[in-house]
Amino acid sequence: MVHTIVRYGQPVLEAKAQAIAEFDTPELHQLVEDMFESMYAARGVGLAAPQIGVGKRIAVIDVTTGEDPAQRIVLINPEIVSRGGAQTGEEGCLSLPTFREPVTRAQKVTVKAWDAKGVAFEMTGEDLMARALLHETDHLNGTLYITHISPLKRDLIRRKVRKLQKAGEWG
Ligand SMILES: [Zn+2]
Predict the structure, then answer these.
(1) Interval between CA 42 and ligand 1 midpoint (Å)
(2) What separation in Å is there between the alpha carbon of 145 and the centre of ligand 1?
(3) What is the pLDDT of residue 165?
(4) Cβ atoms within 10 A of the Cβ of 62, count?
(5) N or C: fewer beta carbons within 10 Å in the chain?
(6) Contact by Cβ (8 Å): 125, 139
């Protein structure tokens, strides 16, 4: 089922999400599947559960946007275990449509997480994958990418969002 993407301004996006304690349940597998469907429908490469209004520590990533099912990544209760280097690149977020800003992040990160069956794993990503791992893990801590840009640019985005909200053009 495709869910509506929650937009910036909703408290669930800025709250710390709850850890998953029970794995391999039909509910969890369905939620993960719904997250992939919702992400593909929105043409994103990553989605965190709070973005569909669910305050749980689950994120999905597919940098092929559905072209290659083998590239699907499910991160449950992810933790960044190491990071190195730096990269600066344009970043956007499905919860902040139309906005894009350069964000400096680590160039290489290693994440520890669990899959939906409850199997723990570690993965290392570089460049775009490192960016996605950091962006999605941030979401689960209630942090949006605009936290990492200058206060001036952040205020500008906030003001534009407020205008769109008043005009009824922001979901
Ligand atoms: Zn995002």
Answers:
(1) 12
(2) 7
(3) 94
(4) 22
(5) N
(6) no
